[in-house]
């Protein structure tokens, strides 16, 4: 088992004829991901090294039975592409695109939740890797091995750092999920932690957060009430200077939330162990599973 | 992107929100001319992207030209919490019956716009929020439904605005919401929202933050950037498409990915060092970007040592090594470098660096080791 992507994933790549889109689609296929289709309006009928390209998601789903989408189109087109994918019945959408306007993300998020639509991971995320099964996105799979540690992270490179440290201690991963650092992530820490809690292969959950937002605090409350598996956390940004704030509205909304210290305290108050460095996180995980 | 008060007011005015008539001035003469045109009494207001200027002497009322000159002279060039005042905004002084507070913020947690209204606006709104949160009426707006007239009524009645301005406040909030959505703002705040003795509503201040990612759809807003407020190194980095934030310490930091860079700052601090900057070279950085990054880091004269912490995913370590070698050919740095290259093409990158025999460049195999070494070398 694993979460979000696995051997049943049938991937359709939006933006597959672009330079980045084709590079990573083929990279994902080389890893073993079942890449069944691509979508680029106007290029229907072509193929990318044997992967058929369609003009629309509806066509791609009808012809290839795709159940998962990876979004690789530039920011002005990304929100539309996500909405097209969910409209076509795609169940899981992984959006790699960085720089999507926040109001677009807000409308997409609201629509997906309302329609009981697709699960969205990202945008502005490195994707999801289930070692030995499927890789959707840009996570360098070579640094990870199969195992029982589920990782969920807001930062790509920090994920690689933590995953690599775990691998050096002989530990592997059920899945690695990058949720991205945008203002409105399609899936939160809570959403992914819930999946790991239900996944029989996952024995321990690592969450890697950073300053800003309240996702980590919300996860702390959720873990206390709903999670039986051990969770180890890392928070980046203890030495980040407090940003100069404009106006009072932000402070009225968030109070002292959002700092690394507040996030670590919220997690520790609910029994989550927080490592002060990526190395310490890996050491804690190794000692708990060892 | 944060706007100055007058830029924010001009934005609000485009959406039909009443603001006092005013003019911007960068010199004492310009300020005097503007004040004469606007008429007296008028307010002379420092234009800086930070709150609390009123309490620090950044807003003064002038009754005649001599006072306008005197106030402009005192405020222009003034330092307000580290920001220098380059412009003042001269506007007609408003008559005030009541001071309300109105704002809309992009609430990341609730994933909706949050509208707030209070009859207790003015300089102490944060205290009001803390001590009597019930004095601030709040409402989340469904982004697909938008702001409806009943939302305005509900907020107005819950906040307890005067009965004769309920309709006006509702219309004001609707216009504020239209500004928020159409300009793609992360924050629009009007404090105070003034009720005049004639029972008109006027936005006496405006704080607006726009979404950087949406500026491509608003070219007229993209031009409002206040370059004078930006640190020279930060401006240089922006021109080179690097994410750079200047800090107070002496250890230059470069990494790839915001999370890893933040983590690097933390680990350096844990070893007793003080980072001079945050610099994210981004995903897939090529050699040229690395060379440019070295230039930006070393343009800060406080830097006494530099740490490269790279974990390559789509970034290739050989590209990073090539960029560093190129930077040494162009700039010939005289401070020590500690370089940790791991991940994609890590061994190739390390081999390239070793072969180049750059002066005073030290390799490290882990993040902790690299941090400890750079802290030692920075002393």
CATH third-level topology of the largest domain in chain B: Rossmann fold
Range of strand content of chain B: 15-25%
Indicate the CATH class of the largest domain in chain B. Answer: Alpha Beta
Largest sheet geometry of chain B = 6 strands, antiparallel
Shape of chain A: globular
Give a written overview of the molecule.
The complex is a heterodimer of chains A (290) and B (379). Chain A has 290 residues and is an alpha/beta fold. Chain A has two domains: 10-121, NAD(P)-binding Rossmann-like Domain (Rossmann fold); 127-289, 3-Layer(aba) Sandwich (Rossmann fold). Chain A has ten helices and 14 strands. Chain A has a seven-stranded mixed β-sheet with strand order 3-4-2-1-5-6-7, sandwiched between helices. In chain A, helix 5 packs across helix 10 and helix 6 packs parallel to helix 7. The radius of gyration of chain A is 19 Å and the shape is globular. Chain B is α+β, with helices and mostly antiparallel strands and 379 residues long. Chain B has three domains: 21-92, Dna Ligase, domain 1 (2-Layer Sandwich), CATH 3.30.1490; 98-222, ATP-grasp fold, B domain (D-amino Acid Aminotransferase, Chain A, domain 1, 2-Layer Sandwich), CATH 3.30.470.20; 231-378, Succinyl-CoA synthetase domains (Rossmann fold), CATH 3.40.50.261. Chain B contains 13 helices and 18 strands. Chain B has helices at residues 5-14, 28-38, 65-75, 125-131, 149-159, 166-182, 219-222, 232-239, 258-270, 287-298, 317-331, 346-356, 367-378, and strands at residues 22-25, 42-46, 59-62, 79-80, 83-84, 88-92, 98-107, 112-118, 136-141, 185-195, 201-203, 207-210, 243-246, 251-255, 277-280, 305-312, 337-343, 361-363. Chain B is elongated and about 80 Å long. The mean pLDDT of chain B is 92. The interface between A and B is large, with 61 and 67 residues.
């Amino acid at each position: 088992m694993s979460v979000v992507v696995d051997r049943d994933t049938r991937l359709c790549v939006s933006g597959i004829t672009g330079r980045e889109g084709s590079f990573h689609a083929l990279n994902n296929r080389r890893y073993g991901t079942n890449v069944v289709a691509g979508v680029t309006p106007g290029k229907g009928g072509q193929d990318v090294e044997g992967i058929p390209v369609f003009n629309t998601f509806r066509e791609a789903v009808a012809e290839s039975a795709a159940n998962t989408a990876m979004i690789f189109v530039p920011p002005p087109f990304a929100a539309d592409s996500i909405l097209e994918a969910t409209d076509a019945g795609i169940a899981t959408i992984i959006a790699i695109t960085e720089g999507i306007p926040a109001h677009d993300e807000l409308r997409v998020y609201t629509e997906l939740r309302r329609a009981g639509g697709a699960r969205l991971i990202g945008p502005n995320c490195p994707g999801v890797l289930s070692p030995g099964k499927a890789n959707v996105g840009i996570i360098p799979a070579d640094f990870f091995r199969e195992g029982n540690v589920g990782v969920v992270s807001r930062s790509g490179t920090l994920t690689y750092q933590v995953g690599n440290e775990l691998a050096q201690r002989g530990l592997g991963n059920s899945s690695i999920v990058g949720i991205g650092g945008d203002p409105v992530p399609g899936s939160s820490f809570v959403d992914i932690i819930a999946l790991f809690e239900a996944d029989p292969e996952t024995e321990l959950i690592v969450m890697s957060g950073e300053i800003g937002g309240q996702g980590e605090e919300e996860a702390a409350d959720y873990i206390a009430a709903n999670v039986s598996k051990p969770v180890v956390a890392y928070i980046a940004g203890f030495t980040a200077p407090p940003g100069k704030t404009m106006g009072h509205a932000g402070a009225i909304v968030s109070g002292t939330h959002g700092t690394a210290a507040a996030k670590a305290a919220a997690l520790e108050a609910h029994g989550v162990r927080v490592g002060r460095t990526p190395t310490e996180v890996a050491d804690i995980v190794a000692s708990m599973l060892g | 992107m944060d706007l100055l008060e007058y830029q924010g007011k001009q934005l609000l005015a485009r959406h039909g929100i009443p603001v006092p008539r005013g003019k911007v001035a960068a010199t004492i003469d310009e300020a005097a001319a503007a004040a004469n045109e606007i008429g007296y009494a008028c307010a002379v207001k420092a234009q800086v992207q930070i709150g609390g200027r009123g309490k620090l002497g950044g807003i003064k009322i002038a009754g005649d030209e001599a006072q306008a000159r005197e106030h402009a002279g005192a405020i222009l060039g003034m330092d307000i919490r580290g920001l220098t005042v380059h412009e003042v905004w001269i506007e007609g002084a408003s008559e005030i019956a009541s001071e309300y507070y109105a704002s809309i913020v992009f609430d990341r947690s609730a994933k909706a716009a949050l509208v707030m209204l209070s009859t207790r606006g003015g300089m102490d709104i944060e205290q009001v929020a803390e001590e009597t949160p019930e004095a601030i009426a709040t409402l989340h707006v469904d982004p697909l439904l938008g702001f409806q007239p009943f939302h305005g009524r509900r907020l107005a009645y819950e906040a307890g605005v005067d009965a004769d301005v309920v309709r006006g406040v509702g219309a004001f909030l609707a216009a504020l919401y239209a500004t928020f959505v159409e300009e793609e703002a992360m924050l629009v705040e009007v404090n105070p929202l003034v009720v005049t003795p004639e029972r008109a509503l006027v936005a006496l201040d405006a704080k607006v933050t726009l979404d950087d990612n949406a500026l491509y759809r608003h070219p007229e807003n993209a031009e409002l950037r206040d370059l004078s407020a930006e640190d020279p190194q930060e401006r240089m980095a922006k021109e080179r498409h690097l994410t750079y934030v200047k800090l107070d310490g002496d250890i230059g930091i470069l990494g790839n990915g915001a999370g890893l860079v933040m983590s690097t700052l933390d680990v350096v601090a844990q070893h007793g060092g003080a980072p001079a900057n945050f610099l994210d070279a981004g995903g897939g950085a090529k050699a040229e970007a690395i060379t440019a990054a070295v230039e930006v880091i070393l343009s800060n004269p406080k830097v006494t040592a530099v740490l490269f912490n790279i974990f390559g995913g789509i970034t290739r370590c050989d590209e990073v090594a090539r960029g560093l070698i190129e930077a040494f050919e162009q700039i010939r740095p005289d401070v020590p470098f500690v370089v940790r290259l791991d991940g994609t093409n890590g061994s190739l990158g390390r081999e390239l660096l070793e072969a180049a025999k750059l002066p005073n460049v030290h390799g490290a195999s882990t993040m902790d080791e690299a941090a400890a070494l750079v802290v030692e070398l920075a002393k």
